[in-house]
Amino acid sequence: MHPRNVYNHPPDFLGLARRYPPLRSHVFLTHTGPTIDFKSQVAQRRLTEALLHLDFNINLTLPDNRLCPPVPNRLNYVLWIQDIVKVSASSGDIVRGIDIGTGASAIYPLLACRLEPTWYFVATDIDRESLMFAHQNVERNDLSDRVCVVDVSSSTSILRSLEEDPAALFHFTMCNPPFYSSAEELTQSAEAKQCGPNAVCTGGENEMITLGGEVSFVSQIFTESLHHRMQCRWYTSMLGKMSSLPKIVDLLREHKIDNYAITEFVQGQTRRWAIAWSFGTHRLPDSMNRIANPALQGIMPSRTTLYQQIANIQSLELLYNTLRQVLADIKNASVKPELTGSDTGIPSILVQAMEVTWSRSARRKKATQPPLQTMSHQYLILQCRVNCAGGPPPGSEKQRAGGLYLEYQWVDGSDRGVFESFVSHVNRKVTTMQ
Length: 434
Ligand SMILES: C[S@@+](CC[C@H](N)C(=O)[O-])C[C@H]1O[C@@H](n2cnc3c(N)ncnc32)[C@H](O)[C@@H]1O
What we know:
Oligomer: single chain
Bound molecules: S-adenosylmethionine
Strand order of the largest sheet: 5-4-3-6-7-9-8
Shape: globular
Distance between the termini: 38 Å
Structural class: alpha/beta
Number of domains: 2
């Protein structure tokens, strides 16, 4: 699960049923506690409606013959897109996205617009019935001015919205494609087996099946993206099968696209994957490649250096957020604290996070903490904070730039030259942005 996903804990079914009465008749007690029958399509629909209504103020109508989107999984993808956008857009910027195959629920635009008040969507589909429900769902939730539902059934292009108006710029495309290439493949899928012989946990045929399966679908998006390039900053898609990932990565590599990221969404027994690629130079931080799966290490993108990450940042807010994120990632050990390699000719450096705390009680607490581990590498402590009160610890070097307060501390035994080149690199960046 994405760390910001509100469904990182088991649902409180009784509490949900109390607050959303239509769910009541589907909740029952087992020896492990209250639950619902996940094989019942009706129960799943009531649960999706309850979560959307109670947690996001979204009111949804779903036809019985179309996919019922599990909210935690859909939220995972939206949160990942939020991370991607944050790397190149400041808070409050107008952000435009395309949801390819929005379905009857229009779940991605609805969730994303509730989370982000300045996001706008073009939501496409080819299925008449789904388009009709998507329209209704957007209207019922007062989002008609931010989500434009478009019928693309007459087009052979998946990225028709880019083709029709080459001047229109987008921050991202997202897509949950039909996964399977045939009804046989669908019947044999792990998902269908999980549902049991009589359970109808799948959607309409157009939602589940496409010629050539998801690899073909996403490959077509990629081929079209070669033409549109920077008209959209990030092209992304979810994938239902792990085996599809290497095929898409091979395609990217064949075309020398090395600016990509992959991630895994885990929700209970279900795993999904997502891939993002860009023709731009903005790099995503390593922490966004959230895959611990050893089977996928061979297709992971090369690591993003801190230099690459900050190279194209154009606002102090983004620079600050990026540096904070790097520190947070290192502290949470979600990335190895090594930012190696650099295409600027600057040697590899190590960044070690140390929270800046200048209150007396925090200093006392820090004194009781174990000393920083000794590293044989070049070593740098980087701290940054906005408008901090009080003074920095003695022996450190500080830079104040606008609202951004950057503090660098050189550690004895590390390479002073590397330290200085990094500091001047960041300072140059800060100065040019003021
Ligand atoms: C798996 S469903 C996803 C629905 C919804 N986005 C969700 O995540 O629950 C795939 C959707 O893609 C649509 N679709 C298939 N081919 C398409 C195309 N060429 N352009 C746009 N949508 C397409 C299908 O009609 C279906 O609604």
